[in-house]
Amino acid sequence: MDLSKLTKGEKIVLATGVLLVLDLLFLPWHRVELGPVLGVNLPSIDIKAVEAPNGGYAVIAVILSLVMAAQIVAAKFTTAKLPTPPVPWPQVHLYAGFAVAGLVVLKLLVETTALGPGAWLGVLLAGGVAYGGFTISKEPRTSPGVV
């Protein structure tokens, strides 16, 4: 896999998109403390993003991030002929990147209690995905149908 084929925006989307998927699937976004409820001193339990409140937003963000990464890999490293969307692929990346960022921020804003480290990292990574999509949309296209 020759990474020199990738543009700056594509590298940003691949790196932040994959890390965001890992963050949303495996890092805790919320902490639940059971001690006060049960009257005993129990440690807090971390809840992953897709199991946490408003996990549907996380699932959609994961799907969009994976689609963005898969399209870049398929266009740059395979000979597969990709379908032609109604708008050019760079615009698709722009819209999808901002949708990912919006979904992650919405997920964060709807439930702000007991946030864990995954929430803050997820917001930064979602911003990176949006920035990568924006960068892709501003880069010159080398040939039609290729990101």
Mean pLDDT: 85
User: Given this structure, which CATH class is correct?
Assistant: Mainly Alpha
Number of DSSP strand runs: 2
Terminal Cα span? 17 Å
In percent, how much strand structure appears in the residues?
Answer: 5-15%
- The tally of helices reads 5
Name the shape in a single word: elongated
Give a structural overview.
The chain starts with 7 loop residues before the first helix and ends in a 9-residue tail after the last helix. The chain has five helices and two strands; from the N terminus they run H-E-H-E-H-H-H. The chain has a single domain (3-138), classed as Four Helix Bundle (Hemerythrin (Met), subunit A) (Up-down Bundle), CATH 1.20.120. The model has no long low-confidence stretch (mean pLDDT 85). The chain has a two-stranded antiparallel sheet with strand order 1-2. It is mainly alpha-helical and 147 residues long. The longest helix is centred in the middle third of the chain and has 23 residues, at 55-77. 61% of the residues lie in helices and 7% in strands.
